[in-house]
Write a structure and sequence with these properties.
Belongs to the CobH/CbiC family. The protein has seven helices and three strands, in the order αααβαβααβα. It is mainly alpha-helical. The chain is globular and about 50 Å long.
Length: about 140
């Protein structure tokens, strides 16, 4: 059996395979779909992504603040001001006291402190659900 061990080669081959299976081009939409398929390991989930007709008009700029639920995402995004509250002492204390995930508490704090930020969710589905509720309640959908 032949397989790659070099991380860059694995990454490149993975994306090439996904691109071929899903018949994607080099457009921004295709790149987003490809990353979703790679992150989830599920092309059907990636195929379910729906873009608004003018979604690119709502994309963020380097001047925007970005908040993420986990440091792993924070360290993978470059060129932007990024904040992650997950390791803040008050977040950890409140999560322990209320027996709620740190991610959820961190995002609630972020919504209070940075309501205009762009939110990027890495791995906490409950955070995504509560963030969606916040966004809908405040009519803050972008793009």
């Amino acid at each position: 059996m032949v397989y790659a061990l070099n991380p860059d080669e694995i990454y490149s081959k993975s994306f090439a395979i996904i691109k071929g299976i899903m018949k994607l081009d080099d457009s921004l939409k295709s790149k987003i779909i490809m990353r979703a398929a790679h992150a989830t390991g599920d092309v059907e989930t990636a195929r379910s992504i729906i873009f608004s007709q003018n979604f690119e008009d709502g994309l963020f700029s380097p001047d925007d603040d970005i908040v993420t639920d986990i440091n792993m995402v924070k360290y993978r995004i470059s060129g932007y001001k990024i904040r992650c509250y997950i390791k803040d002492n008050d977040v950890m204390d409140m999560a322990k006291r209320l027996q709620i995930s740190r991610s959820c508490i961190a995002m609630k704090k972020a919504c209070r402190e940075m309501p205009e930020a762009v939110y990027v969710i890495g791995d906490a589905p409950t955070v995504l659900i509560s963030l969606i509720e916040e966004v809908i309640a405040k009519n803050a959908i972008r793009g």
